[in-house]
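Dock beta-D-glucopyranose; give full complex structure.
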Amino acid sequence: MAGGVVIASSMSKVYPGKMTLYVFVTCLVASSGGLIFGYDIGISGGITSMDTFLQKFFPKVYYKEKHTLSNNQYCEFNSQLLTTFTSSLYLAALVASFLASAVTRTFGRRISMLGGGIIFLGGAAINGGAKDVAMLIIGRILLGIGIGFANQSVPLYLSEMAPAKLRGMLNIAFQLMITIGNFIANLVNYSTNKIEGGWGWRLGLGLAAVPAIIITVGSLFLPDTPNSLIERGHNEQAMSMLRKIRGTDDIKAEYDDLVVASKDSQLVKHPWSTLLQRKYRPQLCMSLLIPSFQQLTGINVVMFYAPVLFKTLGFGNDASLMSAVISGLVNVIATFVSIITVDKVGRRVLFLQGGVQMVISQILVGTLIGIKFGTTGQGEIPKTYAIFVVVCICVFVSAFAWSWGPLGWLVPSEIFPLEIRSAAQSINVSVNMFFTFVVAQIFLSLLCHLKFGLFYFFAAWEVAMTVFIALFLPETKNIPIEEMGLVWKKHWFWSRYVNDDTDV
Ligand code: BGC
């Protein structure tokens, strides 16, 4: 079958190089681009459940929530207007990632990160000072554009900077920052909810400026990657950068491979149509399916709606926000599991183990809720029972945190050859944003219609994606990024697309 582990060890070139302090610090700074994404995911859910925010901007929603006495737990929080507000950001990010593709390829990865940080900062300022819904939406669109740029460029940057043997670990710093941003947002939600006077939401939205400043200032000081420097004709600079980040003068083999990759890249004038060529079919499929599957795990149901979900389980306001803080912390801690293991056990093992764990925990959550609320959505959940449901949700979150979360960003960023890397990464980001948008849009009405079966719906997707990985994803650990074409050549299925006549 896919048998990637054998491939990885038997054919990968080994370039000299170690973890230098320089590469560590650079990757750490670049990965902070994940903070803005994570913070926003966490803050949106908290803000939209705050009474003072709703009263000011969405009075009708507020009125309806307070005056509609629904005894159907599944349908209690179904407001299309609010979800549209939340998900407008993802549409902006989707469009922006295509623009970012051209910027990243032509001007380098760093400029995209810098641009992303500045635009996000503008969005945070407008949102923090918002006086009406128009300001809120404009701010949100800017936040989305910033995220589109950062998510397009940061994973590529990390994968190109890292030595092959540590690429997984350094790239997952991006996901770690997403989870930290998210966790901090949950804490902010918890604290600002207690602020008297109704300006807590302003603080939550305005504080998004902090992660934006970190990535903006950080990227002013970052160097560009050797791959991107060569691609743009700065060969001398690239060579000294390679020496610096690899901590050795013995960089000739790697440098030569980068130059070859860059020559191929220069021949490609239209990366988008190139991507459609038969020989890039494996990469095209992965750039479409990995992000779709990542979102079809249902993770953002927990990330956006954790407080709502926990309220449905019968927790009070405070306890719901606290439970979101707890699941956020689990998310951060569990990410370390993948950081430590990804370059040792490989990507496939994490994907497969995480997939199975997600299926089991989602089925448990669905069944537990089904037993108490049935199909009518009526009933009460005793405290200890509700706590057990939260534990199951945490088991699900942790599985995601060491599998589809980090690998959904890592794997696409390492499998695209240089000539289509930037374009394919935009597809990855835009598909990810599209499905984030779709899940955010339809979750509340799906919950209302599918009831506890919604959790089985996601579990079914998790079965499909786990089988997909088992059959179609070759192992990519430890393989130098510009050598990656070989894994498809040896793969039982993909080799028919990437045969020996085609250049890889
Ligand atoms: C996903 C996000 C998700 C986050 C949770 C990321 O990898 O792309 O959609 O909210 O993980 O930690």
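Observed: The first helix runs from residue 4 to 11.
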